[in-house]
Design brief:
771 residues, 36 strands, protease, serine protease, eight-stranded mixed beta sheet, 19 helices, alpha/beta, secreted, binds 2-acetamido-2-deoxy-beta-D-glucopyranose, Peptidase_S8/S53_dom
Length: 771
């Protein structure tokens, strides 16, 4: 995350370079998406070739233009096309969408213990049958997390390969690896192989499924045993991200391969910062086909929070994961010459012996470089005068990567920025800490009022974070920008200051030229929470190999730890169902299952018609039963969301079906909590089962007066049989005025029935204030 935030500042430059480099002519890489593979004999490559030939006019230009034929798991291709060619292809039979090649961004281990998952209970062979595919920056295969001691050969279902180029090798842990680069654009630091030069993919893969490594630490900080969620599961690596970002044509190629290769769970920690309709979003398309093959895709929710509607990767067939804190925070204190101590956030492994002169960056401007105090106070690289800074600690008025002070031979830096001193820490190439803007003012006052100001920065410590878990500020928030009645994100998992494996050639701090080398690093992001959820999903899959993606997802969501609403003004839009709880998820009692047909029905209501649907499903029997757009209230989703247009009264009816996966004979009764101004009726209120696999259907009627000044009303519905508690949040919210979603849906007034109301917020045992 750290890196991606700073990188985002460089992005315009990178994209401009990309333009000049690959896009000299006006042909650009596009994805031509054509839905499912046709039945029967079908040669994707020749079909795509002849389509291109008819548009481009010659065999040779068709050949030159074609980059990928997607034909293992779904139908489509990527090719270099001009605008005019795009126009003609879009008109052709069988084409669902033509999508420009967008560049997306990549969005220890104490974290598993924190969620009560100190040790898995499944056998190594159960876990060893599960394959997690990761679409990321590749992997560093020699990392200790990927040693395959004690692991047999890959399961027989595995059909993937290892692109062992350079010195890259696979083993029984990393059983497959491929790489994709449709733009054919490589930086100096990129390895033309599945090898990870950035660290991100190594970090996510080891978080999901790394072996246990004793004594892992970041230069001695956070030392302990590092391990992934399913240490015996297999890893399949699909490298789609490079120094310039992750191209959507490559992402789709990776989905096409991963599905056919036989992965069980896909982990995708990347995304776009703006919403696409589902069939124009390669991650939604790829994960839709994965779902059809029984593969759950776990996605990062994005790092664009805390703003409403910022959530990415919100398709209902995927798991969307927010990021929250664990009970460990990284602090580094500053001690001034007058004895005052300020506590800042930083992953500071440096030990300063004694005090050093303290200086305000603004007093060290390098005028010949064009800087003045107003620039130098931010301590950007090149703005400081090294004669003045040498041997001193520099106080800076913003958070930057520390390079300005390092290159000017300073000793350390104190940075003041309230945004970056709240809930997550960065690491720097020199002694550093980040304090609040108010504390910064006190330090400035001290510098101004003292003849010879001095200070020291103490070596970093880890403190217990009693507020944990709380969703971190940068984690993207709901509501869902495309389907307002599907609550997103789905749940939250640890994504703040996570220790996991790293590429030794990648900088260990946020300064991109930091040449130190580490095998473990501590970073933050929904990129880090996503593989925690992928690991947990793989754990459920290992316990229940025959469960559908929706069942696994439901199990993870309905067993989630309840988050403390008092710490989160945006409630479920921050954390969805709550905090992931891998152990309980293997035994949820009931699941909200959903099949491809249910998602198809959902797509029909979202405006797809029989023609476009058939393209997606490749099946002439798919019919949209209604051409009238409708609401998503009947998709068998494990949460309930009701979006209300401004000024309208609250009314909605949900239908849901639960499947018994607990005890054969069981009777569940419903519990409801909702603020009293809203009426919630569940019928029937008791569900009796006499067999495993039996299903029962119920309806939930929600109505009430207009919402006034209430962005979100939050409640819950749970089924309890004395053993299991199957909980779903229920949220009612106002669509922001000006949001264009409108629905012709009209509802008959619900009958007045006795109201079922809980008296207080329901908490499962021992959920809040984990210790
Ligand atoms: C493999 O190649 C990479 C990149 O050149 C290099 O950094 C690494 O040390 C090599 N590893 C082995 C085991 O040779
Ligand atoms: C401080 O002392 C420790 C232990 O002697 C040493 O490792 C470290 O390099 C010293 N730090 C500086 C900045 O001199
Ligand atoms: C000031 O900046 C100039 C131009 O970047 C650089 O050459 C010079 O070394 C700097 N001076 C000091 C004292 O840091
Ligand atoms: C289905 O949707 C497509 C794309 O929106 C449109 O071109 C087509 O005319 C529609 N077909 C029917 C039968 O409504
Ligand atoms: C579906 O219908 C189309 C057009 O009617 C036909 O060309 C195609 O062969 C049919 N496909 C299948 C699998 O029946
Ligand atoms: C479930 O209940 C039915 C009817 O009460 C009974 O016949 C059956 O044996 C019970 N099954 C189990 C597994 O307890």
């Amino acid at each position: 995350m750290a890196k991606s935030r700073l990188l985002s500042l460089l992005y315009p430059l990178l994209l401009a370079a990309l333009f000049m480099h690959g896009y000299g002519q006006d042909k650009k890489v596009h994805i031509v998406y054509m839905g499912d593979l046709p039945r029967g004999d079908f040669s994707a490559e020749s079909a795509h070739h002849s389509m291109l030939e008819s548009v481009l006019g010659s065999t040779l230009s068709a050949k030159e233009s074609l980059i990928y034929s997607y034909g293992r798991s779904f139908n489509g291709f990527a090719a270099k096309l001009s605008d005019e060619e795009v126009g003609r292809l879009s008109e052709m039979d069988g084409v669902i969408s033509v999508i420009p090649n967008h560049i997306l961004k990549i969005h220890t281990t104490r974290s598993w213990d924190f969620m009560g998952f100190a040790e898995g209970k499944l056998s190594g062979s159960q876990e060893g049958n599960v394959i997690i595919g990761l679409l990321d920056t590749g992997v560093w295969p020699e990392s200790e997390s990927f040693i395959d001691t004690g692991m047999g050969p890959p399961p027989s279902k595995w059909k993937g390969t290892c692109q062992g180029e350079g010195n890259f090798t696979c083993n029984n842990k990393i059983i497959g690896a491929r790489y994709y680069n449709s733009e054919n654009w490589y930086f100096e630091t990129d390895f033309k192989s599945p090898r990870d030069s950035e660290g991100h993919g190594t970090h996510t893969a080891s978080t999901a499924a790394g072996q246990k490594v004793q004594g892992a630490s970041y230069f001695g900080l956070a030392e302990g045993v590092a391990r992934g969620g399913v240490p015996h599961a297999r890893i399949a690596v699909y490298k789609v991200c490079w120094s310039f970002g992750c191209a959507t044509a490559d992402i789709l190629a990776a989905f096409d391969d991963a599905i056919a290769d036989g992965v069980d769970i896909l982990s995708v920690s990347l995304g776009a910062p703006w919403p696409f309709p589902y069939m124009e979003d390669p991650i939604a398309i790829g994960s839709f086909h994965a779902m059809r093959y029984g593969i759950l895709t776990s996605n990062s929710a994005g790092n664009s929070g805390p703003y409403p509607y910022s959530v990415a990767n919100f398709a209902p067939w995927t798991l969307t994961v927010a990021a929250s804190t664990i009970d460990r925070k990284f602090i580094a204190s500053v001690v001034l010459g007058n004895g005052k101590v300020f506590t800042g956030l930083s992953i500071n492994n440096f030990m300063l012996n004694g005090t050093y002169p303290l200086l305000w960056g603004g007093d060290a401007a390098n005028y010949s470089a064009g800087a003045d105090p107003d620039i130098a106070k931010y301590c950007f690289s090149g703005a400081l005068n090294s004669y003045i800074v040498q041997g001193k600690i520099v106080f800076c008025e913003t958070v930057w990567d520390g390079s300005g002070i390092l290159l000017a031979n300073g000793v350390g830096t104190i940075m003041a920025d309230s945004e970056y001193s709240k809930d997550f820490a960065f690491s720097y190439p020199l002694p550093a800490t980040v304090i609040t803007t108010e504390d910064g003012q006190q330090i400035l006052d001290y510098i101004r009022s003292t003849q010879n100001p001095i200070a020291t920065i103490l070596v970093g410590e880890t403190w217990k974070d009693i507020m944990a878990p709380s969703v971190v500020s940068f984690s993207s928030r709901g509501p869902n920008p495309i389907s307002p009645d599907i609550l997103k994100p789905d749940l939250t998992a640890p994504g703040v200051d996570i220790l996991a494996s790293w590429s030794p050639v990648s900088p260990p701090s946020i300064y991109w030229r930091d040449t130190r080398s580490v095998n473990f690093n501590i970073i933050s992001g929904t990129s880090m929470s996503c593989p925690h959820a992928s690991g947990a999903a793989a754990y459920v899959k290992a316990a229940h190999p025959d469960w559908s993606p929706a069942a696994i997802k439901s199990a993870l969501m309905t067993t989630a730890y309840i988050m403390d609403s008092r710490k989160h003004p945006d409630l479920e839009f921050a954390y969805g169902s709550g905090h992931i709880n891998p152990l309980d998820a293997t035994d949820p009692g009931l699941v909200y299952d959903a099949s491809e047909a249910d998602y198809i029905n959902f797509l029909c209501k979202q405006g797809y018609n029989t023609t476009t649907l058939r393209l997606i499903t490749g099946d002439n029997s798919s019919v949209c039963s209604s051409t009238v757009p409708g609401r998503a209230w009947d998709l068998n989703y494990p949460t309930f969301a009701l979006a209300i247009e401004d000024g309208q009264p609250i009314q909605g009816v949900f239908t849901r079906t639960v499947k018994n996966v607990g005890k054969p004979n069981s009777t569940y009764s419903v519990g409801v909590y909702m603020p009293s101004s809203v009426s919630v009726t569940v019928e029937p209120s008791v569900l009796s089962f006499s067999a495993i696999g039996e299903t029962k259907t119920f309806t939930v009627k929600v109505y009430g007066p207009k919402l006034a000044q209430q962005p979100i009303m939050s409640g819950a519905i749970w089924w309890n049989d004395g053993t299991y508690v199957v909980r779903s949040p229920l949220v009612v919210y106002n669509i922001l005025p000006g949001a264009t979603y409108s629905s012709p849906y009209s509802m008959t007034k619900p009958q007045k029935t006795p109201k079922f109301e809980g008296s207080s917020v329901y908490h499962k045992n021992g959920i809040l204030g984990h210790d």
